[in-house]
Fold this protein.
Amino acid sequence: MIVPECRLAEDVTFVFDGMIWGIYIPYSDLTVNESATVQIGSSVGLGAVRVPETATEGNFYYESSDTSVVTVSSTGRITGVKEGTAIVTVTLKDGVAGEKTKTVSVTVTDGIVALKFAEGTVLTVKKGTEKLDLSGLTASLVWASGKTENADLTNAEIVGYDKNTSGESEVTVKLTVNGV
């Protein structure tokens, strides 16, 4: 027995799955970004979408051309493994429209993920000192790939320093490198 609960503005197809009736809308294609960029160790979604977006059938499948550069999960999240480029193939299938395939060019980049000071680094200043002098400190830039290099602290910004506070306190050191 079918009991109408609404009035539809367009013709639709219903499918019975053995338990309930559901609206059936087939896909005709898929859309996905043509390219993506991800940093080593980070993940982003590819944004694959059925056309029309209201389609009720079809499953996505993902495959990386080089898993040493980028991996892709069953849900379409890509993760950067090492610097380079790879192609991720997105396939939509298991529907009446057949198999639809698109590719995404993925670029994996290396980037700075931390500024690290030597273990036990302490900067001692007298109360009332206007500006902290970091010239005697050594720090390293840590990249997503694991490499490190010496950091130039000349233009570093100190956040959380109060010249009127006595005692021990923590500050944040911000350093801009190549616009990041």
